[in-house]
Design a protein that fits this description.
mainly alpha, 17 helices, about 5% strand, globular
């Protein structure tokens, strides 16, 4: 039994992290890469102060939240499969530049493969036929599980070209990438923006970091594209457990420095920490850290905003009022501040307008049941979250 998952505040923090990530995503969806001057033309002189219409409605999410939900579903399915068969998980551990397979049991479940297949299901929701999306090892006629039955997910919301292209490539070859087998040299933010749920995977922070990084390395092969995701997953994990943000950052940075190629992300975090000591956030200060479209700046900008605000809603607005990748920084920052302040701290009018809010809440509660030791063991649960 994992004690921190049994704490009364954990449910609010987990739901808050997922809800706030989706709200930040929706707040920034309309103005992604618009200049701050253009944002002020669209939303008023104070910039974005509320949800504005995007993708044909108010509160609509983008691919950032869609992929985050499929990450969480993939983790639940991997964990449920091992629990059902009383097996263990196949994981890769990085030590001094090499990788070795962890201890195995009679039955092994590669969680990275479960994540890969979850992202292939997401690819199918983006207009790719299941035959092309599923990969050559899968002969199923259609995708399974509960999440993909929610038809609202079948909407294309400006998916990242790197994610889309590499998942299409997997659909053709069935070859899974990883830190030890980079698929490209991309350090785009498409890895980090979906990685928050990895925080639930383990009480071993080194394992949380590793899986966060491996989850991003499925599509992004540059160290700054995947190590940012590992650091992010550790920070979210510590916040969910009630740790202060500065302590969570320090813990993540210590794990980060164990990996080759960490320097860009380490420097970016140091810059965010230094800037946070200069007072309240402004668009100009935030933009001095970057645009948020690559892994290391998506994390550093989000950390900076979380450090310089005192409530979740102010942080969410600050995280999207800049000239860069506003939906992604809104999503990543939202995952952080939602875990810090909890669901009850979020504006109710935003939650009421948020697309897929019921699905997000139900998936969060199912994850807490699965990882907290209270998951049902009946056929209905395993049909909802089937293996792989």
């Amino acid at each position: 039994m994992r004690e921190w998952l049994q704490h009364p505040a954990t449910r609010s923090r987990l739901r808050g992290s997922l809800f706030a990530g989706a709200i930040g995503d929706a707040l920034g969806a309309k103005t992604e890469f618009d200049s701050i001057d253009r944002i002020r033309e669209i939303a008023g002189p104070a910039g974005i102060t509320d949800l504005i219409p995007a993708y044909g409605g108010v509160g609509r999410i983008t691919d950032d939240t869609q992929m985050t939900l499929f990450t969480l579903e993939g983790l639940i399915r991997a964990h449920a499969a091992a629990r059902r068969e009383q097996g263990t998980f196949t994981t890769s551990r990085r030590q001094q530049g090499t990788f070795a397979t962890a201890a195995t049991a009679a039955t092994t479940f590669p969680v990275e493969q479960s994540l890969q297949l979850a992202y292939q299901r997401w690819l199918h929701t983006q207009g790719v036929s299941w035959e092309r999306a599923r990969g050559p090892q899968d002969t199923s006629a259609e995708p399974d599980g509960w999440l993909i039955t929610n038809r609202e997910l079948f909407s294309r919301r400006a998916p990242g070209l790197t994610c889309f292209g590499e998942l299409e490539a997997y659909g053709k070859t069935g070859v899974r990438a990883g830190m030890d087998k980079p698929v490209n040299n991309s350090k785009g933010c498409g890895g980090i923006m979906r990685a928050a749920p990895v925080a639930l995977w383990s009480d071993d922070l080194a394992e949380v970091f590793r899986l966060g990084a491996e989850s991003a390395a499925l599509t992004h092969g540059h160290p700054s594209g995947y190590l940012s995701s590992g650091a992010f997953a550790v920070i979210v994990r510590e916040l969910l457990a009630g740790k202060p943000l500065l302590d969570a950052i320090a813990t993540a940075r210590a794990e980060l420095e164990k990996y080759q190629g960490h320097e860009e992300q380490s420097v970016a975090l140091d810059q965010a920490l230094a800037l946070s000591r200069e007072g309240d956030p402004t668009p100009e200060k935030l933009e001095s850290l970057g645009q948020g479209n690559i892994g290391e700046t998506a994390l550093s900008m989000s950390v900076y905003v979380a450090l310089t605000t005192t409530d979740a809603n102010t942080a969410l607005l600050a995280s999207v009022n800049h000239s860069g990748d506003s939906d992604s920084t809104g999503s990543v920052c939202g995952n952080l501040v939602g875990a810090m302040y909890g669901e009850q701290a979020l504006r109710t009018d935003w939650l009421e307008k948020l697309e897929l809010a019921e699905v997000i809440g139900r998936l969060a509660d199912d994850a807490l049941a699965e990882f907290g030791g209270n998951a049902p063991g009946d056929d209905r649960w395993y049909a909802r979250y089937p293996a792989h």
